[in-house]
Amino acid sequence: MRLTILGCSGSVPGPDAAASGYLLEADGFLLGIELGNGTLARLQALRDPFELDALVFSHLHPDHCADFSALTVLRRYHPDPPYDSRPRRLPVYGPEHAAQRLANAYAPHESERHETDLSDVFSFHTISAGSQRIGPFEVTACAAEHPTVSFGLRFESDGRSLVYTGDTGPSHELTRLASGADVLLAEASWTDTPTRPAGVHLSGRQAGELARTAGAGRLLLTHIAPWTPRSAVLSEATRVFDGATAAVTAGETYVV
Questions:
Q1: In this model, does residue 156 exceed pLDDT 60?
Q2: Which of 8, 99, 223, 229 could form a disulfide with 124 if both were Cys (CB 3.0 to 4.6 A apart)?
Q3: Is residue 248 within 8 Å of residue 220, measured between CB atoms?
Q4: What is the chain's mean pLDDT, rounded?
Q5: 98 and 89 in contact (C-beta within 8 Å)?
Q6: Distance, CA of 186 to CA of 256 (rounded, Å)
Q7: Domains in the chain, ordered, with CATH?
């Protein structure tokens, strides 16, 4: 598997930095994971967006899905879309009610909010706790600790595994999901202090502890807020996890 970072700025896009978005590729299948603010621009710089075979959302906060509306415009109105080689309707996987919520975000006027239908260019599928097949990936989801419905996701293909925490606080379910992962892509939005609210995000220390407890092979830190020093988050993680660790960079590709 090959993981490419479209954006990794936490909660909001930063200066010249897109919010959450990733590509995961195996056996010629290109899966998008999240499409936050600014990620469609990065995607177009790296790949043809029509090469996407499917798209997955861990949850529907704007920093993880805001550019979906722009993708809708692209797929509907591009003058020469390559639908001769790929299906017109892109499979989209997300929490329950994702189809309606994403349609509401796209609706041109409040009066049309409940009438907007995106099924001409997307086919929507619901993610819930458990496993399902998406292309070459066995995808297992567990509920995350976050203020909205959110999932941690485990992707397995050809004996390799990538676990993506999504946005979450620590939980036993997440630790089980990450058990033995070759790569753990963990959000680490802030540094560790006792005043941080529970059930929202991981600190650098908590991301490192998750990697250590789960026995992950490698830890990749993402979703670091633009007001949080990346070096501080990375330092926290490496103090408690002695495996290979890095704070990801937009545009970089990592082999799983």
A1: yes
A2: 99
A3: yes
A4: 95
A5: no
A6: 14
A7: 2-255 (3.60.15.10)
